[in-house]
Amino acid sequence: MRLEHKQAIVTGGAGGIGRATAKALAAEGAAVAVVDLNGEAAEAVAAEIRDAGFTAIAVQADVASEADIERVVETTVAAFGGVNVVFNNAGIIRRTTAVETSVEEWDRVFGVNVRSIFLMAKHVVPVMAAAGGGSIVNTGSGWGLKGGGQAISYCASKGAVVNMTRALAIDHGPQGIRVNSVNPGDVNTGMLRDEASQLGQDADAFLAEAADRPLRRMGEPREIAAAVVWLASDESSYVTGSALVVDGGGIA
Ligand code: NAI
């Protein structure tokens, strides 16, 4: 049990990577608040964790909303007595070029993928600092490091996640708060199928292409979860500001 006495918030906790990570954190002893826009799906994940004998609550929230983020932090502190782990993982993608992207879509992608992490830091850092520190893990993307095609707002937003992670690590390291990003390659979740549909491509062909990398397969959500568990745990106590890539061997 590497995460005994940890209280964790997982955003996007009802999705592929979020659900696997919420379960993995709980199985290592953390009490977990499963946060998602889809409140019913978040409750189902929390129930699954409780049924396995671990501790979880669900909180419906839009991570782009400051009022919702404040409520997430307050609810978690009220339920568990504190927060010392946050996995900022909720994210959306729009598979469009700059020419095809509306200002509203650009702002929504940045609201969900970037403003959410700023808002969470604004409201959770004081709680963590008062308790002596904590670990924040942000979901970036391989495309936040090297770019990608037909996803201009997403690539820009994930680049922002990687650099905001470094900035937060610099600001809050002295308070005992570590901040790292985990940067997946293609992972077998609903997001990839959504991308195929946005691009008007066959899902199976799209997934087969996603497997074209040195390890010759897509990632599974539990493989991202394992990296997050390590970054959340005291085993990574001297790691901060890093961009951990978990992508089966990136291809340009
Ligand atoms: P997913 O679509 O399975 O899960 C995303 C979850 O976020 C969903 O449950 C959704 O309801 C929730 N969500 C969306 N907007 C929200 C909002 N405004 N407030 C609260 N919750 C919201 O996708 P997946 O693959 O699990 O993605 C998780 C993270 O991993 C995202 O940040 C994504 O960009 C990132 N990622 C995923 C990759 C992949 O290949 N699946 C590759 C690289 C990064």
From TrEMBL:
This is Glucose 1-dehydrogenase. Keywords: Oxidoreductase. Residues 6-195 form the Ketoreductase domain. PANTHER family: 5-KETO-D-GLUCONATE 5-REDUCTASE (PTHR43669), SHORT-CHAIN TYPE DEHYDROGENASE_REDUCTASE-RELATED (PTHR43669:SF8). Pfam families: adh_short_C2. Belongs to the short-chain dehydrogenases/reductases (SDR) family. Its EC number is 1.1.1.47. InterPro entries: KR_dom, NAD(P)-bd_dom_sf, Sc_DH/Rdtase_CS, SDR_fam. One of its GO terms (molecular function) is glucose 1-dehydrogenase [NAD(P)+] activity.
